[in-house]
Amino acid sequence: MTILIIGAAGQLGTELCLRSKERGYKFVGVDYNELDITNESSTMAFVDQVKPTVIINAAAYTAVDRAETDIASAFAVNREGPLYLARSCVKADIPLLHVSTDYVFDGEKSTPYHETDAPNPGGVYGQSKLEGETAVANTLDKFITLRTAWVFSATGQNFVRTILRLAQQRDELSVVADQTGAPTWAGDIAEVLLEIVDRIHQGKAITWGLYHYTGVPVTTWHAFAETICQQAFNLGMLRKKPFIKPISTSEYPTAAKRPQNSALACARIQEELLISQADWRKGLEHVLIQWKKNNELST
Ligand SMILES: NC(=O)c1ccc[n+]([C@@H]2O[C@H](COP(=O)([O-])OP(=O)(O)OC[C@H]3O[C@@H](n4cnc5c(N)ncnc54)[C@H](OP(=O)(O)O)[C@@H]3O)[C@@H](O)[C@H]2O)c1
């Protein structure tokens, strides 16, 4: 078994490589500098050469606001890239595990979104990811598309890093309190994907298709920021907790519209693949402890 991990240097890709290694799996991890998935012929040739038994696509154009003006790049990476990977999977007769986002929804529903709910993205990033999902589903049968949300990890830029940095510099922060969703540790997503790889490897039956997976519990950006500061304070990474002022979406304008509610219902993955949701607060603690150990973002 060889897993080909695309987007290996990103938040999720890094965790996938780390955990594949820990599990003793044979894997090849590549990022943009080694393979540009927007180039069809090099993608096909690369897959031909590596001969993986499964591909995990953790690569994406994730700059949500920049995507509003950098439209062609967002679609190239988020729609064309998955399409070319799906085509190479068809040619090699192997499955593709792909990752998508809560931003495919408009956020106007008051309860969690199911896989059967109609998407209606509010911006370029969400639209490009949705078209990537469709390209995968229309190209091959053996695929899993895992929609997730509010991803954080010890690598890369994310909300946790931003809040901790600001909390170390300021006495007061303002954070949006009227958007709900579920933070998800990249380490937990990686475990989910590798559990699926295990099932494939063991020849267990798999219901292919679209799944939702996020951490629990559902929260707001404001409450997430409170938890980050509390945990960082408990770990001695903050001398004092800042006051976190709850603000509304209209007080924090962004280029791309965010869904007001992006909670994803995750019953299907539990029923079909026996995968339960992890508590993101545990993942958060792992990330903070890792930074503390590495002297990263310490006071
Ligand atoms: N981040 C979130 O909050 C969030 C929320 C919901 C869903 N998701 C989804 O979760 C998945 C993983 O996200 P993440 O946060 O781990 O993303 P990330 O940290 O931004 O990593 C994405 C990786 O893909 C690489 N990449 C970009 N263009 C590429 C190309 N043309 N060919 C090959 N690699 C390319 C990037 O390289 P460069 O850095 O060099 O560009 C980066 O290393 C994505 O599908 C994303 O849409 C993320």
CATH top level label: Alpha Beta
**In percent, how much strand structure appears in the residues?**
15-25%
Mean pLDDT: 97
Largest sheet: 6 strands, parallel
Bound molecules: NADP nicotinamide-adenine-dinucleotide phosphate
Q: How many DSSP-defined strands?
A: 12
Written account of the structure:
The chain has helices spanning 11-22, 40-50, 71-92, 124-139, 159-169, 186-201, 221-234, 267-273, 280-293; strands at residues 2-6, 26-30, 54-57, 96-101, 143-148, 151-152, 172-176, 180-181, 184-185, 209-212, 219-220, 243-247. It is an alpha/beta fold. Helix 1 (11-22) packs across helix 6 (186-201), helix 2 (40-50) packs parallel to helix 3 (71-92) and helix 5 crosses helix 7. It is globular, with a radius of gyration of 19 Å. The termini are far apart. NADP nicotinamide-adenine-dinucleotide phosphate (NAP) is lined by residues 6-7, 9-13, 31-32, 35-38, 58-62, 77, 81, 99, 101-102, 129, 148-151, 156, 186. NADP nicotinamide-adenine-dinucleotide phosphate is lined by residues 6-7, 9-13, 31-32, 35-38, 58-62, 77, 81, 99, 101-102, 129, 148-151, 156, 186.
Layout of helices and strands, plus pairs?
Layout: E1 2-6, H1 11-22, E2 26-30, H2 40-50, E3 54-57, H3 71-92, E4 96-101, H4 124-139, E5 143-148, E6 151-152, H5 159-169, E7 172-176, E8 180-181, E9 184-185, H6 186-201, E10 209-212, E11 219-220, H7 221-234, E12 243-247, H8 267-273, H9 280-293
Parallel strand pairs: 1-2, 1-3, 3-4, 4-5, 5-10, 6-9, 7-12
Antiparallel strand pairs: 8-11
Helix pairs in contact: 1-6, 2-3, 3-4, 5-7, 7-9
Residues 6-7, 9-13, 31-32, 35-38, 58-62, 77, 81, 99, 101-102, 129, 148-151, 156, 186 line the site of NADP nicotinamide-adenine-dinucleotide phosphate.
